[in-house]
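Table S7 (text form). Paired inputs.
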Amino acid sequence: MPTLGSLPAAKPELDLTFAWPRNSAPHHATRITGLTVLALAELLEAGSMRTLPADSLVLVTGVMPFRVRGRIAAALETLLQQMALDECVGLVVSTAPGQPGQPFPQSLRDLSDDLDIPLLVTTAQGDLWTDVHASIQHDRLVLAERRVEQMNALVQQLPSQLADPKAMQRIADWLARALNVQVLVSEKERVLAASPATAVEHLAHAVIRQSVESSMPDMDAGPHTQLISLAPATGAEAVLAVARRSPFDASELRLLQHAAKLLGLVEQARREYRAVATASQATRLAAVELLLDGEVSKARKIMESLAPGLLDSDMARVFVVETSATRRDATLRRCETVTAGQALVVADPRRRDRVLVIHPVWLGEAADTVVGELTRLVCELRPGASLGGSGTYSLSLLPDARKEATIAARFALHQPDPVALSVQETDLVTLLPPRESQLWASEVLNPLLHTDSWDLLRDTLHCALAYPYTVAARRLDLHRNTVTRRMTRAAELLNRDFASLTDRIEVALALELVTHRVPEPATEPHGTETPTLAALLDTPQIRAWADSLLSSALTDRRDLLATASAWLTANTHLEPTARALGLSEVTVRSHLRALEGHLSRDLSSLDGTRDLHVALSLATGEPRAAGITQSLYAVA
């Protein structure tokens, strides 16, 4: 669009020059939106002046006299006053070639100064001005179409989700291309977007030195800079800064204002999304902690507003995704995405490298979708990532499911495929070769299997090996003396000492293999040699299981495994353990509690103690005790 400064250069045939004021530079940037032509004779007629188009340049045709005075001067004064009311931009009069460039009297020049309307002269004939108005309108149309295209393009930069983290950078890149400017979007302490990258060093100084309220383009020195607050009404500190060597016109400034509004919406959405996401994660974490504390009803109430119906099921599976601490937040977001509202996903508050996924399961429904998505995700995150899953548990037993999933995730790290999705893949008993382990168990229990009291002794052994005789008697609804008598009889038949931890572990393991985990085998083929327990345990899978079980304890600054070895050697008695280590019993208890956390095992149970004993024997060769360990050393 032409201005008072650009029109003479664009149309040299008009011979258009400023007559007043002497310093016409402030008027050079004034835009011209049209041309209004008035005949001198028309001005001299009596009657009121018609309304003139705003922002138009007024041309008075008819050659002015050598000096403007009298009726002509009065008519021009009236015209100037009307132009001021209608916000016209300049007055042009025709003069003869060779005539002095200042035909206006002092009164008109003073009025020009008062009304801030410049006076110009032209020597061109009227026919040379005929296409000026059409040219101006054409330029306006072209500019308007360009601005519409720019606005459409700007709106198209808006993302489908305002919280899109890349949206602000895309808008900054577009603005830099559209206006040929350097763009910086920043807060007080950080850069949100910059285009090109050099904009940071070019605009940082301007952002620091100028406040948003006082930022105005510097017309005397470049580059010209604009600073616009993204959200002045809310007091936000985010600012859009743009700069280039040429000044901005009014339409470009409007485009910058629109861009700042859109950037402000994106920034507001980003901040609010972050706040909502933080609150949502806090709520989910609170629900998970309640579930792990057995407070199912409270957890359901918390989650009802956030994810209605998610915890309505009474059953669930727990998955543990282990990754590096630096990648946990990104992994958490990806887990939320792939589970698509079907699971409760939180960062494990106890470990910075772990994500917990609780997937409610309805009876008859498979968890294949969630399992498949998590498996694909972990395979993409390799190396260093693993996925462990539990079986299906009641919501009230989720702590047990979590332990199972945690063990599975550790075990998976030692597998070619970093995924272990059920207890069947991580439990010591089920890792034993089925047929060989059944032969060994049958051999151990053979003296009992062929007695009339097998059924009676089997149930008593199962309970009394795991608990003190008083507790076992209460659970079996028997007298303590009856339990003691049966256990003494079983020990005699098996030639075992149940005061020895290793004997209790071996008999309980054999009993579990025969009665619970492995079907009874077919008749043993003639000449088949019964394997030793050491041979059963000396397999790559079980060694990987042992390494994964102890891996977390090895990172503790305390020598927990030394305490465990002494404690197992002392048949789990505290006083001789403390004496052997030169520690207090309180310290030994503290070490054992820490070890329970690392192993996810209850060391007051025989199964937990068994897993520790076997893993420690395989991984370190300690404790050097009878039974299991002696057998292991025999094949080492």
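Next pair, protein 2 of 2.
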Amino acid sequence: MDIQKFVDTFFSPACIVSVQKKADGGYGDIRLAAGNKKYIEMIDMRINNKEFYVSEYAGDTFVPNSLYSKYFPKNRSFEDVCYKAAIQKIPVHTYGHVDNVDIWFDIYAVPLELEDEDVCYCAYTVTPSKNADIIFNTANTVQTSNDVLKTCIKLHKANNLKDAMENVISEIRAICKAECCTVLLLNDAEATYSILATDFKTNSKLKRVTEFEGFYDIATSWISMIGNENDCIIIQDKADMDYYSRINNPWYLTLVEAGVESVVLFPLRQGLEILGFIWATNFDTDDTMRIKETLELTTFFVSSHIARYKVIKHLKHMSYTDALTELPNRFACTDHIADLISRRKKFTAVSIDLNHFKSINDSLGLEAGNQVLIEISERWKALSGDETTAMQNFITRINGDEFMLVICDYNSDEELKDIIEKYADALSEPLTVDGCDLYITASFGYAEYPTDAQTADSLISHADAAMNEIKKANSSDHILGFTSDILRNEHILEVENKIRAALENNTIYFNLQPQYDMDHKLRGFEALARMKDTDGTPISPGEFIPIAEKVGLIDKVDSMVFQKATLFFSSLIKKTGLDLTLSINASVRHIMKNGFVEEICDLIKNSGLSTDQLEIEITESILIDSAEKALQCINELKSIGVKFAIDDFGTGYSSLSYLNKIPVNLLKIDKSFIDRINSNESSNQYVKAMISMGHIMGLDVISEGVEKSEQVEVLRSIGCDFIQGFIWGRPMSAEDAEKLVSDIANNTDFSH
């Protein structure tokens, strides 16, 4: 492998790291074997900027295959990441923060199947951002960040910093799996320190910091060890202890006397000023990476809180405010409702949905649709802020064109309906967008606590049901209160009966949507379930498939499509002799059924289809629901040659850890990302990153929902392998698919 050519394919700053593997399973030298242009520019910037550490041997520019410590301070966290990726072959996704320039780095380290005697390799990418939100939007860090948020958000709600920290420090220690966790503040003016909060495991024999005289000098000695780049200190074994005994022997002696075997320590900063430190002692060294991430997040929050709550206030604003309209969002709404219920206060939740809003997006574009949402929100904000009425109104945007209004302190049903009517009347005046006058209406459904529901979930559900009922009626009435009759959803029952009839009469059928490579060469087809009413009227799959899932019939629908599609496809392959792939969709419910493996094996046997011509599309949620059983099924089928694809990649729990677990062949990028690929640079780069990561993992990548030639060109330029979408082929009948394949076979050039 030409590692320089390989690393040059990365968009983000990236390097190839070599790690020397020792006979005892440990590691030796870690070198930067090669770097792409952006990574080399980053190192050259360090060399020429005195704010950053480089060794005296760094020279004037980056030299390939140099020890990393020529350009960066010794960093146990970096070494652990590279060791895991290069030697243990474990993909790693983490992040880091450089405090003196206030930059977060999103970090990937991916194993490379390349070894040179005792040297192993990994690809290491760093994506810098001045937006701290990156740590909350990274799929791999969601669990860690959520754990920390649950504890650190309490800091924001407390009036007293010390009381707040004492309330959460035990939770932080538990998350870190440590024997002790401590927050220490420095008072440089008086050359003293104070313990803001500390928590010890029950029966811990660790010696307290306060038992050591002159510990302020020990604490300040950490500053020079850490430097300006906000590196943490990690001690997790004897080799680390020996290292720190050489560079800071007074601290080392206190560690030994206190009974410390391992420690992770971070500085608390406000800009370049160090306010103090937080550390976890005697933690589970088998989980160093997660614990380091946990404390890095915790440090970020605690530092921010000490520095007048700056970031935590921003976090709360992000968490509870809709970015487009600046209205409170779904989380703020549910919290508000939960608070009212906890106080046993009578109130009404009103579910609001704009009528025919999709047509605005379709005809005028998403930007025009956004302007409509902003203008409507401004009108409703003015109503909710009206102080001339005693009634309290709380208007929120839930999602898309869905809103929720919470009304309190009304005295009668008439007053309640009057205030809802005011929100409806606020839409009576036209909205002017791009020179067009738009007349918007909305459907309002409401439910009252405690009359109509006793919990927040059921109250919102009942308000939604009333809104859907009045919207479905499509009449001049636009406001409806909840009644129990609404729960008897006749439409769902009607469609369920039609599905059962279609299954009984064997009238579920399939369409095939073609898939092509970037040269317009046919790869194969995806089989899509279709159904008609008894009078022959097609029923939208967007309507009957969710109901089939809801009532537990989706596996039967899948099976009928599987049988018919594989029989047809096998016959088609035998007629034409072409090497094509049939892709079928397996629902979570279906793949988790006992006998799924046997069903697929029988399907292959009865149809005569070759196993390598069958591809099963799954979603990441399969692993979330029941990872062990799902992986057993997948591995059994993979062992006989069946291929697997991850559908709707990027919309759920996508991460390197899941890709590493599932033995898939193909990633399918969801249409929602393709729709935005030409609208802004960040969307383009996000798709490019998914394609790059798929290729690094040895997977092919197909983009769904490609509808425009401009999208094709962008996808071709960023290395996408296959395309599926209206641009080159809509879902077609079996007859039309057969004609397409026959024409290709007769033309012999295998293209269309």
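DSSP finds 27 helices and 27 strands in the chain.
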